[in-house]
Design goal:
Blueprint (H helix, E strand, L loop, with lengths): L7 E5 L4 H12 L4 E5 L18 E5 L12 E6 L6 H4 L3 H22 L2 E7 L26 H21 L3 E6 L2 E2 L10 H11 L3 E4 L5 E3 L1 E2 H12 L8 E4 L4 E3 H12 L5 E4 L14 H7 L7 H14 L11
Parallel strand pairs: 1-2, 1-4, 2-3, 4-5, 5-6, 6-11, 7-10, 8-13
Antiparallel strand pairs: 9-12
Helix pairs in contact: 1-6, 3-4, 5-7, 5-9, 7-9
The structure holds nicotinamide-adenine-dinucleotide and uridine-5'-diphosphate.
Length: 326
């Protein structure tokens, strides 16, 4: 479809961790970007460097409410949603509504604007998986009635809405199932494992390991993930279904802790806390589809990505890295 040359790209959640990296990359590529964010887990500082380009603006708005945009819109990346378990569990009903009502509002906007729309879905749609690695064809094992359900079921419901809008309205939709991603600009108090361990190690605090630490995750560096999101958005027509984006190298939480301690030279000690309810025991993406359809695969190892993350947090002002949320 022909677009006005000055049509904008919208990034919901644009002031958050992934959103701010995405806005930065899109603007570097020449786009005009509007970020929509309620600043619940994101902040203005993450995107302060973009205003000077003259091609960026931030609208403070909660996507559970409808929004109208006066400009032509060519693409919408729907990233708004808290992603850290302790953060999304602060107001579970609002988290659920962000995924459901928020996706609905953004799909309606995409329909009015005839814009392509991408949903930031998650590996959490696989729940506590019974198979590894997880391909897109796996339906998942999700508890509908537990502390993670507000996030997992919200994201599953959003995928359903995307499916129906593509089917019923011919909307051009994309769904990225994002696996654990880390990097600079994660909030020091975000509560996710990589930022917690780095912040704790740099401060000399105990490293908080939930459960045995033998549960696994596969950690993707932010630059790789953003590259995958943009490739998926720009992919050929007909790729409506979900596509896994993540790094297939799998680590136990204990291995991650040892790597962080080794790299920081920290005297911190491991402190074992109760296991979290419904915490997935294993997680590893099958990225065959992303590789085949998009020619995408991660390029940054956990070894190198941690070095960059640690360098970033070591430079951050003292107050930003004083305490990890645990
Ligand atoms: P984040 O918490 O840093 O960013 C989320 C952003 O969305 C924040 O700026 C927040 O203020 C904003 N937001 C939250 N609710 C909103 C609402 N109702 N209206 C408007 N803005 C709202 O998290 P992130 O890691 O950058 O994650 C971004 C997206 O990617 C999320 O949708 C998340 O579910 C998805 N995702 C992330 C990961 C990961 O490892 N980082 C993994 C899977 C999926
Ligand atoms: N985790 C941990 N200590 C922390 C934070 C997290 O041991 O301080 C564990 C958590 O129990 C989970 C894994 O690390 O098994 C990844 O947690 P995170 O919150 O980063 O992401 P998610 O559970 O959503 O994959």
């Amino acid at each position: 479809m022909a677009r006005a040359p000055d049509a904008v790209t919208i990034v919901t959640g644009g002031a958050g961790f992934l959103g701010s990296h995405l806005c930065t990359r899109l603007i570097a590529g020449g786009a005009r970007v509007i970020a929509i964010d309620n600043l619940s887990t994101g902040n203005r500082a993450n995107v302060a460097h973009l205003h000077a380009t003259g091609r960026f603006s931030l609208i403070e708005h909660d996507i559970i409410m409808p929004i109208e945009i006066s400009e032509d819109v060519s693409a919408i990346y729907n990233l708004a949603c808290p992603a850290s378990p302790p953060k999304y569990q602060i107001d579970p009903v609002h988290t659920f509504r962000t995924s459901i009502d928020g996706a609905h509002n953004m799909l309606e906007l995409a329909k009015r604007k005839t814009a392509r729309i991408l949903q930031a879905s998650t590996s959490e749609v696989y729940g506590d998986p019974e198979m590894s690695p997880q391909p897109e064809s796996y339906f998942g094992a999700v508890n509908t009635y537990g502390p993670r359900a507000c996030y997992d079921e919200g994201k599953r419901g959003a995928e359903t809405l995307f499916y129906e809008y593509a089917r019923a309205h011919g909307l051009e939709t994309r769904i990225a199932r994002i696996f654990n991603t880390y990097g600079p600009r994660m909030d020091a108090q975000d509560g996710r494992v990589v930022s917690n361990f780095v912040v704790q190690a740099l401060a000399g605090d105990d490293i908080t390991v939930y459960g045995t630490g033998r549960q696994t995750r596969s950690f993707c560096y932010v630059d790789d993930l953003i590259d995958g999101l943009i490739r998926l958005m720009n992919s050929d027509d007909g790729i409506n279904g979900p596509v896994n984006l993540g790094n297939p190298r799998e680590f136990t939480v204990l291995e991650l802790a040892e790597m962080v301690l080794d790299k920081t030279g920290s005297p911190s000690r491991l402190r074992f806390l109760d296991a979290l309810q419904d915490d997935p025991k294993q997680r590893r993406p099958d990225i065959t589809l992303a590789h085949t359809l998009l020619g995408w695969q991660p390029t940054v190892s956990l070894h190198d990505g941690l070095d960059r993350m640690i360098a970033h947090f070591a430079q951050a002002p003292e107050q930003q890295r004083a305490t990890a949320l645990s």
